Amino acid sequence: MESIWNREEKLKKFDALKENIYADTIVVGGGMCGVLTAYLLGKSGREVILLEKDRIFSGQSGRTTAKITAQHGCVYYDFINDLGKEKAAQYAKANIDAVNKYSEIINELKIECDFRRCDSYIYSLHEKERMEKEAEACVSLGMDAEFTQQTELPFDVAGAVKLKNQACFDPIEFISGILENMPENVKIYEKSNAVTVEEGIIHVVSSESTEGGNENDKFTASADNIIFCTNFPFINSHGMYFARMHRERSYVLALKKAKKLDDMYLCISPKEKDNDIHDTLSFRSCELNGEDILLLGGGKHRTGYNKNGGVYDSLKSIASELYADSEVVGEWSAQDCITLDSIPYIGRYSQNAPEGWYCATGFMKWGMSSSMVAAEILNGLINDKKYVYPVFDTSRFSMQDIPTLLKEGKEAVKGIAKENFTVPQETVEKIPVGQGMTVTLNGESIGLYRESGDKYYAVDTKCPHLGCRLEWNPDDLSWDCPCHGSRFDYTGRLLDNPAQTDIGTKIRVEIKSKAEV
Ligand code: FES
Fold first, then answer.
1. pTM to 2 decimals?
2. 178 to each of 56, 113, 123, 204, 346, how far by Cα in Å?
3. Residue-wise pLDDT tens digits, 445-475
């Protein structure tokens, strides 16, 4: 089962790049952020190229719960204390403007995407006072918010903050509408992977064309401005984003025959408590093929920290407790970039990056509103040289503020030195069919996935990004990097950046009984 937004047939298809080209601005990444940025820049008259390595909307944007809200968890009380009221208000305004901008575009283009206004709630099962303080903080910033203990949820809450007049929608229908209305001066290329970038030139590998053509053709795309909307910026030499963010995964079930909710809900975990899945839940209803569907999310963890698995099973057991008649019709997981101060990085790629490089990343768990905020900021920076919301400035951290750098560097490991391994039968028999495990043999560590009784896939568990050791994720059947969240399927194929290549799979394993080894 996959994401209910995974309806590729809804979207126009675009050819891969087949020539060397030039434009005023190149946007790398065809998720919500890249598409909106290209759209706004195109509307302003810019010549834009949008490069997507796979298909438009095939990455993290398609794994959203599609809430469009300025309520990004329990953040405003902390923002006021940590950043001051002016910056906290700027953050709130940017996101409220983003919700309104979606409404404006949808009305203007008449996009039918199940867009509806609703209220957004955060709630706590334990901390009434914290919710009261958050509500006061929101009101002090001019937000239309209030404290309440009344919700539509099938259990009592200690307290909640209601933020009025937010929104939700069907993101695939929305993207489809934007692509249909994309200005002619925006050229989109799918299956066109930006592999290296130098100054204003991007080297692109095109893996496929809708009109045929050679696989893996290489071309260049040049521009004055290059915008990286790639979820995690993959150029390591500038910006040090690998030291300023980590990744988190979370999981979603789509349920039919569960009670329809008018509004959207997110539970806030207590700051001092270990993660209990009940403290991470998220709820919102949508419609799919005329049927009401409830999206039940939760189970967040840092990428690479899910050795025991079982998150989908826990969510399913909560679903059957809360909604006894419900049926699971979709399940998927998402991966988010978490910044040091919970605020996205949007603007210049970095102070020492080439002039004209920009990026948008670190959207926390709020990709829909943050994508629109980013599109507005990048449009303002490129067209007017003006920062619309400077609270998102990418240069707000110096190297001294980056506490994770050393810690993550320590986790780097050596890759394997040889390619042939003899694995004892009793070792592989510990791996359940359909699961993977890291196996250490004479000091060398390989990842083994057992497809069937006697068929295995072996991979090098050294991450090709910066060398951390990959960990097996039993829920998603993937090798995940705890440092910066690169992911690979069990055959070693790259699923998520910042790594740019697959992992080493030229490993031959021979399974032998103990007597033969
Ligand atoms: Fe950076 Fe693996 S070392 S993602």
1. 0.92
2. 12, 11, 34, 25, 22
3. 889 999 887 788 889 899 999 889 999 999 9
